UniProtKB/TrEMBL annotation:
<protein>
    <submittedName>
        <fullName>Cyclase family protein</fullName>
        <ecNumber>3.5.-.-</ecNumber>
    </submittedName>
</protein>
<dbReference type="Pfam" id="PF04199">
    <property type="entry name" value="Cyclase"/>
</dbReference>
<dbReference type="GO" id="GO:0016787">
    <property type="term" value="F:hydrolase activity"/>
</dbReference>
<keyword id="KW-0378">Hydrolase</keyword>
<dbReference type="InterPro" id="IPR037175">
    <property type="entry name" value="KFase_sf"/>
</dbReference>
<dbReference type="InterPro" id="IPR007325">
    <property type="entry name" value="KFase/CYL"/>
</dbReference>
Length: 213
């Protein structure tokens, strides 16, 4: 594919912010050219740092772990819905997807844009974003979509438990912390969000990309 590539990922750097109870991010110099003849660094961070995806095991002890995911769910053609009109702490509902409901069904990779990533790394990035309702999570699960992506840090800051469980029990891959969706310029594009092959665990940081013709 020789078209345009849009990077949809947040930066990873030393002390990059996280949710208050999550592991803190550290990017540590281990050796340098002067000390060893080459530069090498140590990374210490959450499996949910920055732009990342959730596997079902994140909330379900019997759910698939990240290395067991079907990569077809998070790599392929995606549908982008522009919700950038949404205000802080405003609900994202089923009605917001009504204009494209006929395009959302089994196997759909669905992404919504709020432009909330612009608030990163401020503290309120993790609390005041437009949020997915429980009813919307149920609607997406009923439609058997493959993936839901978003440019907010998590679908819902208060009802995070039921919303995650509804989506993950339906084996919907959740991609969180996207960025730069306004640069895509199309409502359909090839999306790639490959996780690290972390054995037996709950999620992974990703380098999310939009690939355009």
């Amino acid at each position: 594919m020789n078209g345009k590539i849009v990077d949809l990922s947040l930066d990873i750097y030393h002390a990059a912010p996280t949710f208050p109870l999550d592991p803190k991010c550290a990017v540590i110099v281990h050796h340098t050219v002067d000390s060893m003849g080459y530069n090498i660094s140590q990374l210490v961070m959450s499996t949910h740092q920055g732009t990342h995806l959730d596997a079902p095991f994140h909330f379900l002890d019997d759910g698939k772990t990240v290395e067991q995911l079907d990569l077809n769910k998070c790599i392929g053609d995606a549908l982008l819905v522009d919700l950038s009109r949404k205000k802080p702490k405003e609900a994202i509902t089923v009605e917001d997807f009504a204009p494209v409901a006929h395009r959302i069904g089994e196997g759909t990779r669905l992404i919504y844009r709020t432009d909330w990533f612009r608030q990163y790394p401020q503290k309120h990035y993790f609390s005041d974003f437009p949020y997915m309702t429980i009813e919307l999570a149920e609607w997406l699960a009923e439609r058997k979509i493959a993936m839901i992506g978003m440019d907010v840090p998590t679908p819902n800051p208060t009802d995070f438990d039921p919303v995650h469980k509804i989506l993950l029990q339906a084996e919907i891959v959740i991609v969180e912390g996207l960025a730069n969706l306004g640069d895509v310029g199309a409502d359909e594009f090839f999306f790639m969000a490959a996780p690290l092959r972390i054995q037996g665990r709950d999620g992974s940081p990703i380098r999310a990309l939009a690939m355009l013709k």
